[in-house]
Please model this.
Amino acid sequence: MVIEGLIARYGLAAIFIGAGVEGETSVIAGGVFAHKLFFPLWAAVAAAATGSFVADQLFFYAGRHYREHRLVRRMAGKPAYATAMRKLEQHPTAFILGFRFLYGLRTVSPMAVGTSHVKARTFLLLNAIAAAIWAILFTGIGYGFGGPIERAFRRSGLMEHVPLALTAVVMALIVISQIVRWHHHRGDAVHCEQVPQD
Model:
């Protein structure tokens, strides 16, 4: 597993970068490594929250100050951008707090908010809160599932298989979370198609 190898080698720096670039995989793996005492749990949460926060602030400011740049305009042409703007207009605070959990909107959303009328300081505050909640949740998933597996394997005398089992659980949790988010996103898309047009 590439992410696990990077975290084992670079520690909290890999979680910081992975949280901003890759997402849940790095954060869950960070929780597993915190359980294995590579570093404290609070440090894994802090690295994940900070990495996610910084990445989304950069996307926000890209949308705010470089909206005419070809890369920003290309992003704005994607269907996900229109979805993000619609959700932002309907429930701005809830959307900013929750876009990290919405399938397909993770990257485009902060840039969309940057092109909107949301104040920079409002986004900064809500982004910080959302990043902390997201980091605590997914780091906690990795940390929480690490303990029961290790105890079960210790009782069975198969401790040498713990790393493989933890890796399998991390991958399973990631797949499940992606399926749930995809299903939620697909449900929203179907609902939009069924809305009668004027």
The chain has one domain: 2-190. Residues 2-190 form one domain. The CA atoms of residues 88 and 95 lie 6 Å apart. The radius of gyration is 19 Å.
